[in-house]
Amino acid sequence: MSEEKGATAHTEAPPSPKAPKRREEREEVVIRFAGDSGDGMQLAGMQFTNETAVAGTDVATLPDFPAEIRAPAGTLFGVSGFQLNFSSHEIFTPGDNPDVLVMMNPAALKVNLKDLKAGGIIIADTAEFTEPNLRKAGYETNPLEDGSLDKYQVFPVDITTMTLRAMEGLNLSQKVATRCKNFYALGLTSWLFTRPIEPTIRWIQNRFKKDPELVEANLRALKTGYFFGETAEMFAVQYEVKPARLAPGKYRNITGNTATALGFLAAAERAGLPLFLGSYPITPASDILHEMANYKHFNVYTFQAEDEIAAVGAAVGAAYGGCIGITATSGPGLLLKQETINLALMTELPLIIADIQRAGPSTGMPTKTEQADLLMAIYGRSSDSPVVVMAPATPGDCFYMAFEAVRIALKYMVPVIFVSDTFLANGAEPWKIPKVSELPRIETEFRTDPRGFQPYLRDPETLSRPWVRPGTPGLEHRIGGLEKEDITGNVSYDPANHEKMVRLRAEKVARVAMDIPLTEVRGDSSGKLLVIGWGGTYGAILEAVERLRAQGKSIAHVHLRYLSPLPADLKNIIPLFEKVLVPELNMGQLVKIIRAEYLVDAKGINKIQGQPFRVSELMEKMQEFLEDS
Amino acid sequence: MSEVTIPDAKLTRKDFTSDQEVRWCPGCGDYSILAQMQKILPELDIPRENLVFVSGIGCASRFPYYMNTYGFHTIHGRAPAIATGLKVSRPDLHVWVVTGDGDGLSIGGNHLIHALRRNVVIKILLFNNRIYGLTKGQYSPTSELFKVTKSTPYGSVDYPINPIEIALGAEATFVARTIDVDVKHQQEILKRAHEHKGSAFVEILQNCNVYNDLAWESVTDRNTKADNTLVLEHRKPLIFGKNRDKGIRLRRDMTPEVVTLGGEIDQSELLVHDETKPGMGHILSRLGAHFPTPIGIFRAVKRMTFDQGTHVQMDNAKKKLGPGNLEAMLNRGDTWVVE
Ligand code: SF4
Predict the structure, then answer these.
(1) Among B69, B313, B336, whose Cβ lies nearest the Cβ of A476?
(2) Least CB-CB distance to B71: which of A309, A318, A478?
(3) Which of A597, A566, A574, A560 has the alpha carbon at shortest distance from A526?
């Protein structure tokens, strides 16, 4: 590699625009980037999200990609998409239908066109609309030329060729050079929506800092795309989305998985305890392990185990030793961990299990979202085995619920299952960064006093047993999975003792209900329809309910973040409504519980497509339900 | 004030005996192992509270209940994984794992292999009685071919696993075998396992007198054991037999053979055992049916332990980045302020 080309002069001075561009303000824009799974669309989407978040808009994202890392190029099933919604007002969902499609090949267009709003914008890489690619996507003629897209605003841009041209003088293979085209597309889109590219420039410089040639290549692609928008005559209008009036404070952009990892870390710091994460790689939970593996300068152990069972086993071992023991997984992994979770339940050790739900039984659809692990989390172990189950509502909320999971686990000496999902895990939103001093302290105490010590002597309020670190003199004792005698913890087969212990373990979990926030009802406190949701469907349900309320409908929304135990006040809220509706991305799980617990004829709205709810489809169903009565 | 130091009272075997009634069948080989452990622990001079026994499920896994130390009777096969989490995060503890041939090599085979390959500083005792005892007598992964049991009335048709070879294959840094009734040898091996800086794997040939009596008769019977046992000693030639007149020699093609000493063959031709020599353990573990059963230490080598590696990385990160700062971590990356 030669030295002389190293300077960035090539990209510094923007050519002056030929014609002044008109600026148009938009309140809210939904963009979807799509291309082959090797085209870097997820990265382009994430970077655009960061740019617009830094510019102060509210933003919500929906990455949607196939499980194949590099699916065959040009195929319909290999299309990887990233949708984001950014707005000058507060938003709760990534948007139902895009205003803009940035399409890297015909397959992407084929898959995504049906969602585009009427009159929407299409930016397409013409270089990829070749005969073979069109055929692979099932097009007989080129849609960019045959008039079939006339009702949209189409911007045909030869992204590939212009990216390659920008690489001239660099010592890159054609393959590597072509791979920069996602940054060209990002640069162009950034210009079109007046987003600042500086955050992306910093990201590129940091990401490729070991390879100056790649820094240069990607920066050139980004800037060339940006300047093309500025100079090309086909782009007469530039759109602007003003910053949103979010609550004052310092913000960053955050995904659910990062927030989860930070929540665990914050809890460990506020508890003053070391943290041990045992995990086995699994989509979509692996990012929690990746993130926490960078916390080594804190007292954080990360352990990539040989399997899911060892991952949770090591976490239990660490908890026994006095650490905060955590394991992160997805549904198939939770299934494998259940026996070990029961061991933690029986030995009454604190344990936190993060289940980042994905779609389908068995391998299912690993990169798609669903909410179908709820019953497994609450009930899916042998025998009567109550644990605490909670679920975050938004990517940023993952931080607080992860923190809360640790607090509850330590206070009650109980396993807590934190149920997130793919939509939350990979989705991003602006997140108001909390001050550490505002986070509560988590008080824990290890028993050290041998006087009167019994392994299963309980705290009268929480019913938790003492946490004893091995190494404490005078407190040597044995625990295990066999039924325990109350107080002494000795192995016992006594019939009455067994019933007592089963009921005590249940009572302990039930008491958590007294330790959680009151239920918030959004909307009127009584009326016709109460919509009860949980987990990542929060934004879509909220938006749908708010819009119907704006139309004067009698409807309210409760979003449960604690699923086991349920909030104590829910039983007083439900009877204040004539009907109860439970939208879920499963065949109806929470609805079963609501029906069983509250003897109410609750009905479900159920979608099982690996995709989040759209606001419009929820509104439609809710409206039908309202009219039915 | 004058400095007075009163030494801690020496611990005795009784200090390690819990108040729980031992519930193994009378005559079970487990009793002897428990006794040897309780015998050697006072000699190791470590505080009782720093000892943890972790077990899985099976007859052997009842072991922790009878030890007056910290103990964790976990679930079937998973003890090595649980012990790994404990030991890595608590390097101050001495962690022993007690498992059996079913627990450690069948349901928990995966965890055993990985704990050994990682070289976590845990001491794994595998009581091998070649049968499932607690579930009342099904064949196990170490049972001989064609074993007739309740679950295999026509005889088993799968080949047994060799625990020592599994451990060697996993690159365990300490691999040994001993016998329940050979108390002296067992004590020696347990002590060496304790002293070893790394994971230790000890197969203990154990008699289940109820479901598989005399499985190890050839090496325990007073009349035959000397001819059937090869006691491994570091840097000593491989000699065995009642009259110590037999030895093991390598043929030209590197396969071992039994030779009789005296006459034309003297000791200098015999294979000399070396715990640290690559490949030695493999030769000895594969001797086969026409050879005596080796007992002793097959392999003992030094390597970075998993606990060390983990802690060195954490210490280095702290040196490089400073102690973790939560505020900074929360504020990492691009941020902006809303007024
Ligand atoms: S069944 Fe066998 S191994 Fe188990 S306690 Fe009885 S004799 Fe010992």
Answers:
(1) B69
(2) A478
(3) A574
Which of A193, A212, A240 terminates a domain? The answer is: A240
Q: Which of the listed residues A404, A438, A472 is the one where a domain comes to its end?
A: A438
- A479 CB neighbours in chain B (<8 A) are 71-73
**Measuring from each residue's beta carbon to the nearest atom of ligand 1, which residues come in under 6 Å?**
B 24-25, 28, 30, 59, 129, 133, 208-211
Residue at B148 is within a domain: yes
pLDDT in tens, A577-611: 999 999 999 999 999 999 999 999 999 999 999 99
Token reading at A121: 């914008």
User: Alpha-carbon distance A220 to A229, whole Å?
Assistant: 14
Q: Mean pLDDT for chain B?
A: 95
Interface test with A, best of B15, B111, B338, B339 (most A CBs within 10 A): B338
pTM score of the predicted model: 0.94
Asked if residue B194 is part of any domain, the answer here is yes
What pLDDT, on a 0 to 100 scale, did the predictor assign at position A100? Answer: 97
Q: Are residues A257 and A234 in the same domain?
A: no
Name the stretches of chain A with pLDDT < 70. Answer: 1-19, 629
Chain A residue numbers touching B331 (CB-CB < 8 A):
250, 252, 433
Q: Would you state the pLDDT for residue A466? A: 98
Ligand 1 centroid–CA B188 distance in Å is: 24
> In terms of domains, do A272 and A210 share one?
no
In this predicted model, what pLDDT tens digit does every residue of B115-129 receive, in sequence order?
A: 999 999 999 999 999
Domain tally, chain A: 3
Closest CA to A424 of A278, A314, A263: A263
Q: What is the pLDDT of residues B144-200, one digit of tens each?
A: 999 999 999 999 999 999 999 999 999 999 999 999 999 999 999 999 999 999 999
Task: Kindly report the CATH number assigned to the domain that includes residue A231.
Answer: 3.40.920.10
Q: Is the pLDDT of residue B233 over 90?
A: yes
The best mutation among B23, B62, B210 to test binding of ligand 1, ranked by most ligand atoms within 8 Å of the C-beta, falls on B210
pLDDT at B257 over 60: yes
Query: How far is the C-alpha of A465 from the C-alpha of A444, rounded, in Å?
Result: 12
**Which residue does chain B place closest to A327, by CA atoms?**
B85
One domain, residues A217 and A266: no
Q: How far is CA B86 from the centre of its chain?
A: 18
Q: What is the pLDDT of residue A18?
A: 54
Q: How far apart, in whole angstroms, are the C-alpha atoms of residue B122 and residue A440? A: 37
Show the beta-strand stretches assigned E in chain B.
51-55, 70-73, 94-100, 122-128, 131-132, 138-139, 174-179, 200-205, 229-231, 239-240, 246-250, 256-260, 293-300, 335-338
Chain A residues closer than 8 Å to B70 by CB: 470-471, 476-478
What domain count does chain B have?
1
Distance, in angstroms, between B229 CA and closest chain A CA? 36
pLDDT value of residue A13 = 45
For residue A562, give the 3-state DSSP assignment.
strand
A262·B329 Cβ contact <8 A: yes
Which numbered atom of ligand 1 lies nearest the CA of B24?
A: 5
Can you give the residue range of the structural domain that contains B118? Answer: 13-215+304-308
Q: State the nearest Cα–Cα gap between B311 and chain A, in angstroms.
A: 9
> What residue owns the CA closest to ligand 1's atom 6?
B25
**Given the DSSP bridges, would you call strands A388-390 and A415-421 parallel, antiparallel or unpaired?**
parallel
**pLDDT for res B2:** 54
Q: Is residue B257 part of a domain?
A: no
Which residues, listed in sequence order, are joined to residue A467 by a DSSP beta bridge?
A446
Question: Mind spelling out the 3-state secondary structure of B172-215?
Answer: CCEEEEEECCCHHHHHHHHHHHHHCCCCEEEEEECCECCCECCC
What is the CATH number for B61? 3.40.50.970
A457 to chain B, closest Cα gap in Å: 17
> What ipTM goes with this model?
0.96
CATH number at A323 reads: 3.40.50.970
